[in-house]
Amino acid sequence: MLLRKITFFKRRSKESLSGSLKRVILGTVLVVIVSFIISTYVITKNERKDFSMRESDNVIKTLSNNISSDIDKYKSLSRLIMTEPKTIKFLRSEADYIDIGMINDARYAIMDILNVTEGIDSVMILRDDMIMVTTNRFSYRYDYELMNSDTWKTNIYAGLGKVVVSLNSFKVAAKNDGSQMVTIGRAIYDIDSQKRTGLLLMNISPRVFENLLVSLGYDDICIMGTDGTFLAGNKEISRYYKLNQNVLPIKHKNVRKGGRNMLLTSGKVEDLPIVILKLSPYDSASMPSRMIIILLLLLVIFIGLAIYIAMFIRSNITEPIMALSASMDENRRSGDLHKIDVSVPNTELDILENDYNSMIDHVNELIDKLMEKEKNLQKAEMRVLQEQIKPHFLYNSIDTIGYMALDAGAENVHGALETLGSFYRNFLSKGEKEIPLKREVWIVKDYLSIQKLRYGDILDDEYDIAEETKELIVPKLILQPLVENCIYHGIRPKGEKGIIKVSSRLEDGKLHIAVRDTGIGMSEEQIEKILTSKKKEAEELDSESFGLWGTIERVRYYTGKEDIVNIKSEVGEYTEIEFII
Questions:
Q1: Least confident piece of the model among 99-108, 309-318, 570-579
Q2: Would you say 558 and 475 are in contact if contact means Cβ atoms under 8 Å apart?
Q3: What's the CA gap between 233 and 253, in Å, rounded?
């Protein structure tokens, strides 16, 4: 009856897998359709955004080139003004010989040159002695205090005759009506002597930029100075400009206006203190229908491939795997590990079947080996039990010799034998491999007591054993080899009295046991070699290092971890070895 229920649930499991496969196919189709719709929307949106950005880039670049071209035209015009004979005469004349007539002649000559072009609001020529000629004097108010200083001239003079473009007459003059100007400034040098004779300021009216925008048909553009000065175009857009913002070469930003997402494109005219802002809606152009047809075709192909792959997986993978699983489960329920034999359609599943059969052979082999080891272990334990009888002869002999020494009046000999007996009782520990920490410390104390009889007062020992650690179980004889190393390879070679300190503490659930000596210490190379050496390499170490390495390996084997030891040392000062269990 139980076997029938298991078979029934097995069949239900196979049916559930088939149903799951159908749900996966349907889910895949739905995901692909939703992904197609989302992708089409995202691609369309991105295409509109990219198109708007490209369109804005072209407008900004075109307008920048036009502005640069107009400025170049005014730069050429400034050279004509500087070379006009009456202007040169005004600049060369001594201050005492300049009168109103000479100034007017220079002004009228400049105005004759300006008649051939439009957009020049005013031209100012200032000699180095600040005598000035201007074409539109009464429409400006001047800051004579700033004008008479040298601070505003620095950039112009640094150009050495080249054009320096700024805003609003370099702040030495401002329009009475508040209009903003783009100013061309350049130092004037005498054509013969090459001596600087003055400087020229040419103010370009913002009408130049207004006319340019009108001719190009742009109503969504604002032209500004880099200092936030509005020059031309749609003034409402100027509120989106922030001083010192990075607009090189062209920057795009999404902004909200009237509840709509708008594209704000900003760019600086190269080598000019002029910024162009363009605020435009994202283009409404949709994705080309040819692209949508291609995407739909790809969608149909993908769905067809998904269905085909699902059917292939079911017939060539799912059903054969279920057959393998059923055979393995039958093997498990039988209680015997036998090989299975299932007909599978491809080599990969055949490899899986062979691997399972190989694993069965290996498991059976391991079981046989384990049983053999268990028998050998039982025999070994029996031998250990028998050998435990022999140490009693050693104990009794030591006790007998001790009483004989006591009867003979050799109390020191009796004490030494008593300590030696205690040492071997704890050392042998009835054949145990693990003992409490306090008994391990007793072994160390007895060992050092015997060593003190031999070496006199060249060493002292100290103990700082935390109370909560005394009953904790540790591998036997992990401290005595360390203490022995302290004496023979630390304190004795130093040739002076030393201290050996044994301490323990419990920290974060881990037992920390440390042995420290005030001997000759160890170098970093020695420490690194001990910590990283493998068994074959360790056999080549000196006796000191090999003994320490062997103790470390015992603790690693006991804990099953590598990072169980910390070694700190300073050559000539100390060595401290800490186990973490």
A1: 309-318
A2: yes
A3: 19
